[in-house]
Amino acid sequence: AALTVRFLTRRFIGEYGDMEFIYSHNLTVDGREILFHIWDVPNSQEQAEEGSLEEKRIQWADSFVLVYSICDRASFNILPLKIQFIKATKEGQSQEKVPIVIVGNKRDLHHQRVVSSEEGRLLALSLDCGFYEVSAAE
């Protein structure tokens, strides 16, 4: 949520609840007006989440940005399963590769880091995803 709000408003807000939001945002890229619809879903580490709801979210989206905290190993460890589920759901219907980017957040909290940049890069490489490390706060 912090990254989404930062992208939309250029402001940082540190605390968020566990609520879902859908945002719309216009942006000019290379002289073209692009309308983004962002479905911001908090991380659910429960494997028991309803599969049909998760599939609905995946079918709705054209691309995915999966964010983990570099200070939270569990948020990183859940990524491979989520990415496999996304690919099975999206790519099972077509031969097109689904755009997925993995983002390590909280780069500013390097003193609390438990997931190395190299681990993030290697995971992204092994799953054929993009990779970035950022700080929503900075």
Notes on the protein architecture:
With 138 residues, the protein is α/β, with parallel strands linked by helices. The chain has one domain: P-loop containing nucleotide triphosphate hydrolases (Rossmann fold), CATH 3.40.50.300. It has five helices and five strands; from the N terminus they run αββαβααβαβ. The protein has helices spanning 2-9, 51-60, 73-77, 79-91, 117-126; strands at 21-29, 32-40, 64-69, 100-105, 130-133. Strands 3-4-5 form a three-stranded parallel beta sheet. Strands 1-2 form a two-stranded antiparallel sheet.
Features:
alpha/beta, Rossmann fold, GTP binding, three-stranded parallel beta sheet, 138 residues, Ras-related_GTPase, two-stranded antiparallel sheet, Small_GTPase, 5 helices
Quickly describe the structure.
The protein is an alpha/beta fold and 138 residues long. 33% of the residues lie in helices and 25% in strands.
CATH class: Alpha Beta
Indicate the structural class. alpha/beta
What overall form do the CA principal axes indicate? globular
Largest sheet: 3 strands, parallel
Number of helices: 5
CATH topology: Rossmann fold
The count of β-strands is: 5
Task: Report Rg.
Answer: 15 Å
CATH superfamily: P-loop containing nucleotide triphosphate hydrolases
Number of discrete domains = 1
Strand content: 15-25%
Do you know the CATH architecture? Answer: 3-Layer(aba) Sandwich
Distance between the termini: 15 Å
Low-pLDDT regions: none
Average pLDDT level:
83
From N to C, what is the helix and strand string? HEEHEHHEHE
State the share of residues found in helices, binned by percent: 25-40%
As laid out across the biggest beta sheet, the strand order is 3-4-5
